[in-house]
Amino acid sequence: MLGETVAVLTRRKTGEDEMGEPVYEWDSERVENVLVRPFSGSDLADPLRPDGVRVSYSLAFPKAWTAGKLPGFLTHRRVALVARGMDERDADAALRVSGSPDRTTPCPTAWDTIAEVGRVDG
């Protein structure tokens, strides 16, 4: 089995604006061989958002990705599905990681970290 290339986006504080509010930038790290499984998309039932849709995926990260071994590393991160045409420089269009993914040990396969990611548009 072969996975896809994704980019994990991490927010970094770079300073403050003239009003004293924090300014952030996003750093991108590419990860190869990630298994990507789409869940069924759905329309939103909110009458104020008649064109709204929800998309979500399950991602299995490989054991070889050492940064993902730190506890809680994927929490508050975003993921761009680079192999599916998502721009890794656009954090607003990237998928948000849901919850705090955990590692499975021992794990007999090449993928030991599962994360659910998604986004709502419209």
Question: How would you characterize this protein structure?
Answer:
With 122 residues, the chain is mostly beta strands. The chain is built from no helices and 7 strands. The chain has strands spanning 4-16, 22-38, 42-43, 53-62, 78-80, 95-103, 111-121. It has a 6-stranded antiparallel β-barrel. It is globular. It starts with a strand and ends with a strand. 23% of the residues are buried.
Q: Nearest-angstrom radius of gyration?
A: 16 Å
Unreliable spans are: none
As laid out across the biggest beta sheet, the strand order is 1-2-4-7-6-5
Q: SSE order in H/E notation?
A: EEEEEEE
Chain-averaged pLDDT: 87
Figure out the total of helices: 0
- Beta fraction: over 45%
> Alpha-carbon distance between the termini?
34 Å
Main sheet specs: 6 strands, antiparallel, barrel
Q: Can you tell me the overall shape?
A: globular
Top keywords for this entry?
122 residues, mainly beta, 7 strands, 53% strand
What's this model, at a glance?
With 122 residues, the chain is mostly beta strands. The chain has strands spanning 4-16, 22-38, 42-43, 53-62, 78-80, 95-103, 111-121.
